[in-house]
Amino acid sequence: MLAALLESGRYDRHLRRMRAVYASRRTTLIDVLARHAPGVRLTGLAAGFHAVADLPAGAGEQAVVVAARERRVGLYGMGGFRSTRAAGPPQLVLGFGQVGGRAIEPGIAAVADLLN
Q1: What is the CATH number of the domain that holds 52?
Q2: I need a surface site. Which of 4, 48, 61, 108 has the fewest CB within 10 A?
Q3: Model pTM?
Q4: Do 77 and 91 meet the contact criterion of CB atoms below 8 Å apart?
């Protein structure tokens, strides 16, 4: 099956289409955050299907995650992804790989006050 996909060119077409889809979602996330939470700095955008958002110093990373989930927005604290589990600056992981482009703006708008 894999050989047939590769030989037919369908795999290449799929990759090109998905790269455009994910690039659009990434751009949407950047634009929406700039409008709703302009003080939030994003990093890690070139690394995959997520971005890392810096929270203000002293913000409770886990408290933001819990409050966002109460608003039906899934965010993840960076603390769970650190290899040493050492405390670091408060940051969130914002995934956009499994989120439709039209869901990004309402999600960010719902938690913008938590991010600022």
Answers
A1: 3.90.1150.10
A2: 4
A3: 0.86
A4: yes
